[in-house]
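Reopening this one. Same input as before:
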Amino acid sequence: MRTILYLLPGVAVMSLAFWAYSENYETQEALGSVERLQSRIGSERETLAILRAEWAYLNRPERLRDLAEMNFDRLGLLPLTPDHFAPVSEVAYPPDNFGLVLDPYSLAPVPLEPISLQSDGEVP
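Same output, byte for byte:
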């Protein structure tokens, strides 16, 4: 009976030690994975910064103007002038949920169509 009482805590201590070592290895593996991901995120951010710089370099207005002039016969691109834009009064504003359109000059709601009252004063 005493041997069982001595062996039982020994087995419990050994099983807890095994569990603690396995948790330690899993934790170290997770930390290594996090470090690899952080390193990859850093390299991707560097790549993104380089790509943004290249995009800004390629979208310089003088470069685009020269390309438009070189390819004018194929593309027919012209510089923007105020004649290319419509006046604000010609813009069709979508109605809101209540069937009202915002007047672009006063920002006050204006009904789309006049509401006619019936003879008893109710709205149709």
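So the earlier flakiness isn't reproducible anymore. For the record, The two ends are 95 Å apart (CA to CA).
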